[in-house]
User: Fold these one by one.
Assistant:
Number 1:
Amino acid sequence: MDTSSEDSAPPPAKKTAKTLAVGPMEEIRQFLPLVSVKPRTVVCESVNFEKKWECRVSVSLERFTFQDHRPFTSKKDASHNAYLTLGCAGQICQPDERKVKEKVNQHFSQSSFPLPKDVYKQPEPLKFCCSLTNITCVFTYTGADSSEASARQAAFRTALSCLCPLMRCPTALPTTAKETELKLKTLLDTAAGLKMKGPVLKSVLYRSSAKLKFTGFCVEAKGEQGERSKKETQSRLSQRLLRLLQGPETPDTASTSTDQSSKRNALQEWFQQGGLGMPVFEDANGKFGTRITFSAPLCLYSDWQDSQEKAGKKLVEEIKRKRFAFILDQ
């Protein structure tokens, strides 16, 4: 992917009549001293941007029939495998999924598509086949890469690999982009009820990242009302720090008195896995006050956005409102 970075030490900008927006690097650097007990214990070393192309290929199925001649010993198994093939073709479910029919029907209902119909045949005693008729829907396949051509080929390859089992065709994929597109178009031309829906949609997306460096950084917490021991305060502070380092989606661990050490252990495991020095726990102000001091590098990312400016803003939001919020709100 294409990458670019903000200079770690940009020269001062010349003043102009037009006010310029503050970039993410400067905004992050202005914010970090506000969360540091000691100066320069956390610094932003660099801000980088990535760029990728995303292409989407849509295929419409109009009253398509999936003829499944595989025999099974029960109607339930026959139906499960027929819906599994359809579900995998539309990237609705995984090959090892169980309640496939329910998931496929739920997807069709939510997308306002009519539900497929089951048609059973019994080719021999105690053997059942299930075909699906009246399949009307749109499946969309996405490919992403650093160039438009590669992203386009990835989208067509995904479409081919998903649709070939539904059409009972060999799944061997071509190696070149032109051959991949030609094979998919030929496959759709020869199948009743399948066709390309509209042109290939394409977009350019951006993601921003910041490299932070913590050196002797401290977080503190006083014992809250209801906390009965220093171990409980250590557990609460360890969880806050984990959410700074791993993200707000870090699951809360057990809160019973017998499992308070699990949060501290989880925090120490994070440092151990990164080959870093262990965080230091000390007493602080308050009856059960606790201080944690640590040093570590940390790289944070924004979500993919449709402009570099939005990616920069999302990165600042990730740092200010998501990561550091957990140690500021004590």
Number 2:
Amino acid sequence: MLAPPSLSIGVQNSPFIGIQNLHAETHERLQKMTPEQRATLHDNARKRIDNGGREIIELFESSGLPLSSGGMRLSDPVYQRMEEIVWSSEGKKAAVAAPAAGLPALAGVEPLIVADLGDRYHPHNDGTKSAGGIVGELMRFLLTNLPVTRTCL
């Protein structure tokens, strides 16, 4: 197995120590990293935003590379916040209103997510895909819990 490229992410006992060599790193080196290694680099860059981290985050944003191989974890704070937004009263109303206007349910809720999470909501960590899944769960729940009336029969 090849050793991972030596991008600097500040992880103890790792070939990735410090973030001094950022400008020498390239998109190609990021591509060689596993999504999990990129996620660690990104997390550490956020912790060091004023000490070289901003440049690393910009590199990720321009790369379009995923930060996870299996989507967002349910324990991810961003995922949990998206759930809170989607399942809120305002989120439910927005999700239901969008299809009535001919749009996907996510289109109604996404502005609320973007307003709350800002740059923490992006496709690089499967944020948009995860948000779509959460909205899908909401819509299935709402559909299966509609009151049955004679007009529905």
Number 3:
Amino acid sequence: MQEPDVRVEPDALTGYAGLIGQEHQMLAQVRTALAAVQVPAGAFGHLPDSDQLHTAYNEHATAEQQNLTDLMDLLSYAATGLHSTAGNYRTNESDLQASLGGGR
């Protein structure tokens, strides 16, 4: 069984890394907006266990901030990896061309 030929387009990798960067920026704005939302202690009114509801809300809000930070870190790692991979492919192609006397 013969393996199919694989062609990698470094520009496609860097283009996708750019899109990931845009998503990272958008999530940073969302994280900032959510961090600005403060729910006062009396917001849950006279509901039974309103203090516990407020505490639970704050715990969830804190966890969501951490989730967004973790997601942003993952996107950053992915973009960095894509840029690095594209660079490696470009270097390899250049080295291969040079070893063949500039031909393709």
Number 4:
Amino acid sequence: MKFLYILLSFGSLVNVLVALDEYSKQVITTTQQMSETKTTLPYLIQDFVHSGLFTIVELGLIFAVPDAEDNDVKDYIKQQDENSHIEDYVRSKKIYYQRVVQINILERTNIPAPQIDEDKFRDANLRALGDERRKITLEAIRLLILDVINGKNRNFRKFSDMCCLLGVFRSIKEPTSFIVNTKLNATGLCCLVDKNENVIKYYTVLGRIWEVTGFLNSTLLSDQIKPEAQPEVQPEIQPPTQ
């Protein structure tokens, strides 16, 4: 599937998308569209991670922390775009990311972004909206990682790609300390740096992925992705259409 990123002109959004209410509206719209397309959401996450078009913070804003404070993300957005002089630049870019997701879901599923009743969400709280987003994306990324671990999905054979996916996973699970940087060090260790400057480390041995949890202690990734309560039926992931 062709990844659609340049379908929207960012500059065309700036004049109309500046208020918090508009951002909340786009977050609600995107979350509802994701909810209607849950079975293909793991592949959407895969596409965004593999595209190379987004930093780990931008991936976090899309899948994990749409409720992140502007001050916590502004440096990771401005550093890659020359249009930082635009008024309310950070908020406008955050809206832009939501619109890009909506168009990619439409391309993949033919399900458009829904029209929402704005009066119903007039008092919407971004933290609650973020919680709703994470409920959906956590299930999707668990399914994706399970397929990688079980060998069904071989699109993350490069540990650098897996490291980025783990960064998104950690941001969804720990939104108050979302990931701001990912890298492989000289020994091949996946190092995830959160916004509080803590470093989470993962490594792979014989096809199994472990998190370093202490001196000489490690935890299997497969144990971390187990849901708190196993549902009776796990949804099947629908393969992407060509």
